[in-house]
Amino acid sequence: MGSITTVRNATPAATGGTASAVPATGNVEARLSGGRDQVVQARRLVSATLGRDHPLHDDCVLLTSEIATNAVVHSRSGDGGEFTVTVTFPRGRVRVCVQDEGSASPPCAGHSIPNGSSGRGLPLLDALSARWGMVREAGRNKVWFEIASV
Known about the structure:
Elements: E1 4-8, E2 27-33, H1 39-50, H2 57-74, E3 82-88, E4 93-99, H3 121-128, E5 131-137, E6 140-148
Helix pairs in contact: 1-2, 2-3
């Protein structure tokens, strides 16, 4: 079983910044403020945790950006709240989970329109992850995805 590390205001420097600073398996978690500028911190956490040479790096960073953006834009996290990003990396796969502070109604899939700037996150999850899901508990939303090495 890996260790659990809590990182506040995660930046590559705060998380060690290299893949060698991270064990082969484990769990890294960060609680971030709900501002749109914190989505980049969520991406940096995943990038620093996995390391740029990790075969799943790019897809994990992209999908993290999508679900962190949804947390900030579509939940109370973006109204002065917070959201949590958890990266779990058992051997051969990566699981990223974003928990927000909830919304009045459950999340639903949007539809993208040509030349539009939204509605592509869930189709990306479908296309790039091995599996993904959403759990709504006590009004809070937890969206996660898993990608496995081939």
